[in-house]
Amino acid sequence: MEASRSTAAMRLSLELARRGTRGANPLVGAVIVDAEGTILATGHHRGAGTPHAEADALNRLGPIDPAAARAATMVVTLEPCNHTGRTGPCSRAIIDAGIGNVIFAVTDGGTDSGGGAATLRAAGVEVSQGLLETEATELNHRWFAARAAQRPFTTLHLAQTLDGRIAAADGTSQWITSPRSLLHAHEVRARVGAIVVGTGTVFADNPRLNARNEHGEPFEHQPRRIVMGLRDIPADAALKADGNWEQVRTRDPHQVLALVASRGIDHVLLEGGASIATAFLAADLVDEIFLYQAPIFLGAGRGSVGELGIATLSAARAFRLDPVDGEAVRILGPDTLTHLEP
Ligand code: AOF
Ligand code: ZN
User: Fold this and answer.
1) Cβ pair 192, 23 in contact under 8 A
2) Which of 34, 36, 77, 35 is nearest to 56 (CA)?
3) Ligand 1 neighbour 108 (Cβ under 6 A)
4) Minimal CA–CA distance to 283: which of 244, 263, 309, 265?
5) What is the pLDDT of residue 86?
6) Mean pLDDT of all residues in the chain?
7) Which ranges of 34-140 does DSSP label H, i.e. alpha helix?
8) Residues with CB under 5 A from ligand 2 (ion)
9) Contact 73, 98 (CB under 8 A)
10) Helix, strand, or coil here: 149?
11) Do residues 158 and 269 touch, judged by C-beta distance below 8 A?
12) What's the CA gap between 204 and 220, in Å, rounded?
């Protein structure tokens, strides 16, 4: 295949990858092309627990005669995985489908998941790597960094007023954002392995911290609740209801993530309040932010983030818009939702 054709296919794969949701798994896109570079099928990974990009593309390809499969190329943003995790190995699926060629951008490098390229080559598949590697690394840069540090990927939830407040002067805080925003937040809860809150949030709001749908019914998957802080929380705290919780008696966010990782959890939601946001931001341990903003001012009251030790503008902790399915900013009823990455 002409180089310009494979580059175009990889660009499309990178674009498709962005339709998914990052978290426990990276964003991955895949395109299957024939020898001329004509697209036969496309696929992307939607999020942990769902089919991988390669499997998605193969499913959409459907039946194809062996000679055509042999001549086809799978162009994918990440090295096909080699392990059985929540889904089966992509290297095997590609071999079983009889696909003759694979071009991937960046190696997986995971201790379990890596090694797909070697498996493919051993089975006689033509494999090349490194096409648009910089772009593919950039696409998941925080995810790769989190895995290299052997810590979970972190999502910070901020729900605030236009002037960045999470409670009024008298402490009232329910509800700043709309029911539509709350529903989105619950959908995020249903995708993570754990939610982290501070003891202050437990005392102030006594939240249940489970994930509920628009009818108030619990989703099938419920996150573990992690309470960070030194104070004893009340014996009858609502989040203790089903026993799927624990307290970490520390103020160190690294220790919290180490504990979460030791439980086999690879994606956490940092939900509240300001002390949690501050501690994780200060330690550069926030991989993405969902910022829910209500169109109101309070002018006083608690801010969403506290002291970060920043004295001058040039030292600001900077984030950038990170599109999810083409949109970094969404309208949720009266509110806006902005998705950001460092
Ligand atoms: C791929 N294609 O689309 C993705 C991959 O638990 P699992 O089965 O979902 O596996 C997750 C691991 O697989 C993840 O940590 C990463 O190494 C890789 N992700 N691999 O071949 C994909 N999302
Ligand atoms: Zn895979």
Assistant:
1) yes
2) 77
3) yes
4) 309
5) 86
6) 96
7) 53-61, 66-71, 90-96, 116-122, 133-139
8) 52, 81, 90
9) no
10) coil
11) no
12) 27
Q: Which pTM was predicted?
A: 0.95
Q: Which two tokens stand for residue 301?
A: 């009251």
* Segment 35-74, tens digit of pLDDT: 999 999 999 999 999 999 999 999 999 889 999 999 999 9
Among this protein's residues, is 138 annotated catalytic? no
- The string of pLDDT tens digits covering residues 315-327 is 999 999 999 888 9
Q: Are 102 and 112 in contact (CB under 8 A)?
A: no
Q: How many contiguous H segments (helices) and E segments (strands) does the chain have?
A: 11, 16
Neighbours of 36 (CB within 10 A): 9
Quick check: CB of 266 below 6 Å from ligand 1?
A: no
User: Of 2, 15, 36, 54, which residue is the catalytic one?
Assistant: 54
The interface predicted TM-score of the complex, written ipTM, equals 0.96
Which pair of tokens denotes residue 71? 């001549």
80 C-alpha to ligand 2 centroid (Å): 5
